[in-house]
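Model the whole thing, not chain by chain.
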Amino acid sequence: MPSQSDEVTQLLIRWSKGDKAALDELIPIVYAELKKLARRYMGRERLDHTLQTSALINEAYLKLIDNRSTEWQNRSHFFAVAAQIMRHILIDHARSYRYAKRGAGAEKVPLDEAEDLRIHRAEELVALDEALKQLEAVDPRKSRIIELRFFGGLTVEETAEVMGLSPVTVMREWRAAKAWLHQAMTGKEPAQK
Amino acid sequence: MDVQRWQQVDKIFQAALEREPGERAAFLDEACWGDPQLRSQIEAMLSSDEQGCDLLEGNAFEAAADLLAEDQPELAAGERVGHYSVLGLLGAGGMGEVYLAEDTRLGRKVALKLLPASYTRSESRLRRFQQEARAASALNHPNILTIHDIWEIEGQHLIATEYIEGETLRQRLKRGKLSREETLDLSIQVASALWAAHQAGIVHRDIKPENIMLRRDGYVKVLDFGLAKLTEQKERTPHARVADNLDLSSGLVMGTVRYMSPEQARGQPVDPRSDIFSFGVVLYEMLAGRAPFAGETASELVAAILKKEPPPLSGVPDELQRLVSRALRKKKEERYQAIQDLLDDLKALRENKAIMGGGKMAAQSAEPSALSTTDTMPISTASTITSIVSGIKRYKTSAAFILASLVVVAIGLTFGLSRFNRQRTPSNQMRIARLPNMDKADEVAISPDGKYIAQTARNAGQYGIWLVELWTDNSVPVLISPAKNFVSGLTFSKDSEKIFYVSDRALYQVSVRGGDATKVMADVDDSLSIAPDEQQVAFVRTRDSDHEMALTIVNVDGSGERVLATRKGPEFIGLPAWSPDGKLIACSFGLNASNRTESLIAFEVATGQEKQITTQRWQGFTSVAWLPDGSGLVAAAKETFGGPTQIWQVSYPDGEVRRITNDLENYGNLSLTADGKTLVAFQLARRSSLWVTPKENPSGARPITSSERMVYRAVSFTPDGRILYPFSVNGNQNIWIMNADGTNPKQLTADAGVNVLARPSPDGRYIVFASNRANQGAFNIWRMDIDGSNPIQLTYGSGESGPACSPDGLWVVYSKGGPEVLNAQKTLWKVPIDGGEPVQVTNTPSNGAAFSPDGTLIACWYKQDAASPWQLAIIPFTGGPPIKLFNAPRVPILWPRWTPDGQAISYIYTSEGVSNIWSQPISGGPPQPVTQFTSEEIEGFDWSRDGTLICSRLHSTQDVLLITDFR
């Protein structure tokens, strides 16, 4: 019987070769793992209030990927893939969360300000995703950099390695993409059509 | 924006960023010349860059972790979590999702709660929550939800609790406000739960309708004790702003603002009076159908709690209105100061419902009642009774004279100590007399006319019924009916002419004047109750096939058998008692056989419908009887584990509980005269004392303590020659230490649960012991410093006992598994002295470990397999099979000890009620007696390093008491 790590590795390879169906199979597995990790991270006393996404993905990577696989040695590559999966998962989740709390006829629970905060977060994430799709249409490279850095937690150097760019370029593109997204998300889409 | 345009914007924007801010305007003038729209687009980008994007400065996972973590794993029906199998979702709320699940080991239904991750991120808070939750559950209060289990799987914290079929008070309130009677009934139960918790030092902090469950049979259960601990702020400064209490950082608002006390809303420390306020809010809501304080937002609501007076309750009697407003005072000093006072007032309101509305309800009932001690007289009942008994022995002349004079000897018992009658004083002073010639009785009963005492006994090999006629010269019991076998179920007929009894599973009757007994009916169980019309009997029959207990009624001619009620393990019923009007059968019942929590319940004979008699709980009943006027019951029950079985009076239908006896003896076998004035009861007294045998004089054993009304049991010498011993007062079993001559006794453990089996570490630094303080009645191994400080829990299983420290001081060996002390499920384990992962030492039944002086060997009781007899084994501490096995007493008594020279293993051997210490040489050969006692049993012993032997010796006595004026 193939182990889970074999399975995930194979799916990643298939997906990286263009098999879209592999992603559908991958998401629930990675999702389950990330949820488990998220719960554990949330369970710790958060002294610095910072979650290290890269550490988290690294942990998922170690857990999900068969290290013996020769075809899948590029850790950065995994991160790039994982960033896309993270985006799928987190945005999906935020969307359904927002829907559950604010959607069709759901009664807004008063007095729970933390709940409000969470709903606000969910809405922000959904808005970011929408903006990112727009950005992708006009500037796919910037959109990808955001995906890697924001959803994948990659450093500038790691992003540069995955993208085949210089770190300086990544830094510049990152800055421009952020400005673009900020405008898009605050309703001031850069350059009204 | 099209791609081309964007590329243009991006290029100029990035170029602008390369320049110093002061140079940018000039750069843009040039770069966007003739295209003001382009310029404004780039300026907007630059402004966005300056403002930054908060969301993107973090990372997605951080932003979404709250969402992910809050998203509970949806458990599907059929899914297994540990040994629980999920049956379905019961509900979801702020405090997590709750599932119905089955405990596959015990076959019972439980509610399984998943705690949101945001609650469990602080280890210390989690521990505090677990402690409080367990402590509250361990109170075994009928109105506090029982917790079976708290544990963690993959970062997910779960709680398994008893499953309540019913609804929350919130659900009930959605259907409208409650009637005054309903409100009083529910609130008395809630207040009673809070009282029990407050007495144990636990403040709920989050009393609200969501946390109050209404069971279908009328029981109310308060949930989530301790849970508020999880959401508490780590630090709270007085006068902290309201917003600070809304713990936004943890992702959850603590509790519900609506039920917060003013001090909670201010972020000040809370005490039981905070619960009283929250309870007041709930009480108001029950009566009004709406909460007393309102607000659109949290801040408005908090302002109302802090400042506004709630609108008056309409249609609610003044007294109740006053009670509620007194619970809702803003200043905690002006509120009810103790929940018990509030509880007392609620009960008073319920009792006085007849005069309600007339405004006659005593206003002072709302005042804190002072504890009256003027008419109580704390004296030693035992010594007084002893003097009465010696009186009987001296004057053998006329029993009538003696009894007549005895019953006027008043014995004022220490009613003042009882919590249940603070506002009452006994109407009369109780009188107790001891009946002679009853020491062999198995059961006794007084005739309704008060003329006879019947006893069942075995005398000179003969079973039968003996009768003593009271108030005559003849106090010698007369055999009126012999029986072939053991006789029980002794009951007089109403006219005092006949006696019913059970023998060989058949019910017989015999005339008090003697003659042949006639068989009334066959196939009854011995704990039975006869209907007042004497035409039916009731008993609890246990079906062996499925262990179901059935309260069964049968006509005396054997016809019309029907089952009134059933209980299946772990619940149980017993001790049926038919009410004087014939309409009810009261029973003792338990909810959980493992911790023996019992109370009283009644079943309607006509319908089988259950009625709760009282909310009070005990740890086991031995006898239940109705007062002949039907106004209540008397029962013999123990209040605490290891405490004495005392006599209680429970009123019906109010369920008020009053303790009749208040001493350290055990009572049982209650019966009453028809006028309800005289109560007959067994009194079983156990006395024990410590005896020391010096090494140089094996026959010179002498007592170092006087004979006391408690049992020393397992005793241990410390390395410096002091003695560790358990001491039990009012059910608190504590570990004490004293000098070897009995002087300077000092209590080491602080009234937390049962603490027993203390053993010192060889360096004299620590004491290891078994305690149930943390774990719902299950025993764990604990360690404390030799002075009683720094108690630390070392093990977290159940049924853990008999700890012993290794001579190198590094390990604690103990036995684990199964509830009873000497249990074939127990095996030996070891745990590091500083705690850690336990390691199994033996894998066949073994118990009572003792280390050899050099620490290489363990002696213990041992079975080679479950079917083998117990043997005395010597096992290498490093593990492996026994290197020596010796034959041992059939039922070994804990705990074996090595002699100080390491050449023999000593143990207690009891034969015909007399115990002595014997030693088994490890070189082989027969065991040798060490002591030469000719009476009394030994319950514990130890050797000091210099060879002094200490024994705790026990003797029990049984008396039959005639108690009058007890009501």
